[in-house]
Specification:
The protein is of the alpha/beta class. The protein has 32 helices and 21 strands. It has five domains: 1-152, Rossmann fold, CATH 3.40.50; 160-309, NAD(P)-binding Rossmann-like Domain (Rossmann fold, 3-Layer(aba) Sandwich), CATH 3.40.50.720; 319-421, 3-Layer(aba) Sandwich (Rossmann fold); 431-563, Rossmann fold, CATH 3.40.50; 573-718, Isocitrate/Isopropylmalate dehydrogenase-like (Rossmann fold, 3-Layer(aba) Sandwich). The strands form four sheets. The chain has a six-stranded mixed β-sheet with strand order 7-6-5-8-9-10. Helix 7 (112-120) packs parallel to helix 8, helix 16 runs antiparallel to helix 18 and helix 25 (528-537) packs parallel to helix 26 (552-562). The longest helix has 21 residues, at 157-177. The chain is globular.
Length: 751
């Protein structure tokens, strides 16, 4: 590990962070705007009103990670210079999890007054200050003085990070064990910065101060020790009127043990001495006060165990807190991070742990089961939802408590946060909002599948649609119960209901295609794709999703046979929406038509342009080839050329379209408008129609894998009623997204 870490850090360029520009710097004009003479304008605005710094500079998204290196986790007092890799790492976490920029600053100072003065002088630079790895008790005084002096948030993560994350874990652990915060007895091993701050935070959550017993290396913190001057002013607040004793005495009868000290100091016998169903947070790193397996094996009742390690359940990891707390504080220009904001963060984390866990998170942690209970009481650090839960909760608490300089609509704020994580979330938010405005009834053909059941639960929770799960009703409800989902699924069971009318409907549709009535009855009873297709075709559902457990062609066949294409369409097509950082592309056809002629290409272009508009994107279509506007003339290039000509000459087509053209011509503005000034496209295309299925499928997958695009789809266009065919292996979020698309499709098809 040491060698790997050294290689990781020294690989050119050394370190882990860099400065990147956020504005164009390609021309002389760009540079004159960035620096002299243009930069004078924002300087004058800020001189007139200091608050304008948030409008014209990075201040509002810039945090200073500041340390003297006197208490680096696991390494101790290694000094400012040696602590720099840790501070850079903190900057990486801020950026990765909350898109916050960081300057790491290591101050070679051992005087508290000098440290405070140095940090205070940097207030104009930063929107917030994250103090890091500063030894106790100086860290308490430094934070306290800076909070009083500065009008930006100051947060010592070593104190409050562990407090907030373990506080969230405590809220859920107490609920699971059937205990009450006001009644529990809590024992702390350790009396340093993290322990004192955590104990204070537990009091804010509802634990009684007189129920907290704290130990340090010399034993219990007693009033006798406090009166003798043996304790500093911060740990003295948790001294109790008790006889002298050690950690074993303190743990006897305790409901909760909180370890913030050293590894291996707790025995199984000490665990056995605790109250029923004990809660153990052994957070010393890398070796906890007692090992996970050892603590679990010590008793026969439920032991809820958390550590600071990632290889065991319930990791208390500060990265669940500081990025998102600062995100919420910065976005309302908070003057501080107060107790209300910290409690809001802990409560939001605790609530999130009770929700269904995304497939991407489960996969990231080795496909281990993640369901609310003793082994899952806090979310995982790689759960992207933490940003959308904690930051808004902190922002709301800042507004309500008077710490915010500006107010915001929390729902709109969540949308802005989603946009930070990628264009796909921003684009899907458009469709999700439309779906919630008028939810439709959606048939889920593979209703007994666990992933489908989880998706249905989220669809209901988010108000996107009214899902109808097709399959064995008992199995669906049993699956929902086993998953701990608190929703009552709507189920239709083809095998138990009276669906003679469905049989008649299918028979009428397919009797001249070789299907007997007996076969139609069997298909309705035994094939949920046919059942769902009839359900939609009869109007008993507004849309349908299928395909999660079948090959795409097999899943597509029933809806094509029963529902068919729209009145104004002859062909269906599969479209992917690919989102990049600053660009969105709709790519067709990637799933249906193998060798389309000009008729198919023309129609697919129309369908895809209509789809783009559902995402509030004005389409600009390019029909692709390996030829530019006749540079190669053969049967293959003539098809997209002819389709483009028809579309250009059709007065009902209200979007720019051109072709045939090469892919780079379509998407590179300099090539498109510079070389081919005659083109009808004045800007790069955002609808790309490929000449055949091979090219479309290969193209979208290369863009997704090598171009870093997020893919949403495939979305089936051209059908008479909304049907979307999932891909095998799609995750819950993919199903929820397509359910939203299907709902918007159904809204457009409605009266």
């Amino acid at each position: 590990m040491d060698e790997d870490a050294l290689e990781y850090h020294r690989t050119d360029p050394p370190g882990k962070i860099e400065i990147a520009t956020t504005k164009p710097t390609n021309t002389q004009r760009d540079l004159s705007l960035a620096y002299s003479p243009g930069v004078a304008a924002p300087c004058q605005e800020i001189d007139a009103d200091a608050g304008e710094a948030y409008q014209y500079t990075t201040k509002g998204n810039l945090v200073g990670v500041i340390s003297d290196g006197s208490a680096v986790l696991g390494l101790g007092d290694i000094g400012a210079q040696a602590s720099k890799p840790v501070m850079e790492g903190k900057g990486v976490l801020f950026k990765r999890f909350a898109d916050i920029d960081v300057f790491d600053i290591e101050l070679d100072l051992d005087d508290t007054d000098a440290f405070v003065e140095s940090v205070a002088a940097m207030e104009p630079t930063f929107g917030g200050i994250n103090l890091e790895d500063i030894a106790a008790p100086d860290c308490f005084e430094i934070e306290e003085r800076l909070r009083e002096r500065l009008s930006i948030p100051v947060f010592h993560d070593d104190q409050h990070g562990t407090a907030i994350i373990s506080g969230a874990a405590l809220l859920n652990a107490v609920e699971i064990s059937g205990k009450d915060l006001t009644d529990i007895e809590v024992t702390f091993a350790g009396a340093g910065a993290a322990a004192v701050a955590t104990a204070e935070f537990y009091v804010s959550l509802g634990v009684r101060r007189e129920h907290i017993t704290m130990c340090d290396i010399d034993g219990l913190l007693t009033t006798e020790r406090a009166e003798s001057g043996d304790l500093d002013e911060y740990s003295r607040q948790f001294a109790r009127d008790l006889p002298e004793g050690d950690l074993a005495d303190a743990m006897r009868g305790a409901d909760v043990f909180v370890g913030l000290s050293a590894g291996g100091i707790v025995s199984q016998e000490m665990v056995r001495s605790m109250a029923d169903d004990p809660i153990i947070f052994a957070m010393a790193n890398p070796d906890p006060e007692i090992g996970y397996e050892e603590a679990k094996a010590a008793r026969d009742d439920t032991v809820i165990m958390a550590t600071g390690r990632s290889d065991y359940p319930n990791q208390v990891n500060n990265v669940l807190g500081f990025p998102f707390i600062f995100r919420g504080a910065l976005d309302v220009r908070a003057t501080e991070i107060n107790e209300e904001m910290k409690v809001a963060a802990a409560t939001a984390l605790a609530d999130l742990a009770t929700q269904d866990v995304p497939d991407s998170v489960v996969k990231a942690y080795g496909d281990q089961p993640l369901q609310f209970g003793p082994d899952y009481i806090i979310p995982k650090p790689l759960d992207a939802r933490v940003l959308f839960e904690v930051a808004p909760a902190v922002a709301r608490a800042a507004i309500d408590s008077g710490a915010a300089r500006i107010e915001c609509d929390i729902d709109e704020y969540v949308e802005r946060l989603e946009a930070r994580l990628g264009k796909s979330r921003e684009m899907m938010r458009v469709v999700l909002n439309k779906a919630k405005a008028d939810p439709k009834r959606i048939a889920l053909a593979e209703g007994t599948d666990e992933t489908i059941v989880r998706a249905a639960s989220q669809i209901v929770e988010r108000g996107i649609a009214e899902p109808v799960l097709i399959g064995d009703a008992d199995e669906v409800r049993r699956t929902a119960a086993n998953l701990g989902l608190e929703f009552e699924p709507t189920v239709v069971d083809p095998e138990s209901g009276d669906y003679e009318a469905y049989t008649d409907h299918l028979y009428e549709r397919r009797k001249r295609n070789g299907i007997t009535r007996r076969e139609a009855e069997s298909m309705i009873r035994n094939d949920t794709d046919y059942f769902g297709s009839v359900m939609v075709d009869r109007g008993d559902a507004d849309a349908m999703l299928t395909g999660l457990t079948n090959h795409y062609p097999s899943a597509l066949r029933p809806p094509l046979q029963v529902i068919g294409t729209a009145d104004d369409a002859e062909y269906a097509a599969g479209v992917y929406m690919l989102t990049f950082k600053n660009r969105v592309l709709f790519v067709a056809d990637a799933t249906v038509n193998q060798a389309p002629n000009e008729d198919v290409l023309e129609e697919v272009t129309r369908h895809t342009a209509d789809l783009a508009r559902r995402f509030d994107v004005e389409p600009r279509a390019a029909l692709l080839s390996y030829s530019d506007f006749g540079s190669v003339d053969n049967q293959g290039t003539r098809k997209p050329r002819e389709a483009a000509r028809r579309l250009r000459e059709d007065p009902t087509v209200e979007f720019p379209v051109d072709g045939e053209m090469q892919a780079d011509t379509a998407v590179v503005e300099e090539m498109l408008t510079g070389t081919y000034e005659f083109t009808d496209l004045e800007e790069p295309a955002n609808v790309l129609v490929f000449p055949n299925l091979e090219a479309g499928n290969i193209g979208y997958k290369l863009l997704q894998r090598l171009g870093g695009a997020d893919a949403i789809g495939p979305m089936l266009v051209g059908m008479d009623e909304p049907v979307h065919v999932l891909q095998r292996g799609d995750e819950v979020k993919d199903i929820v997204n397509l359910a939203a698309v299907a709902t918007v499709d159904a809204q457009d098809d409605g009266p």
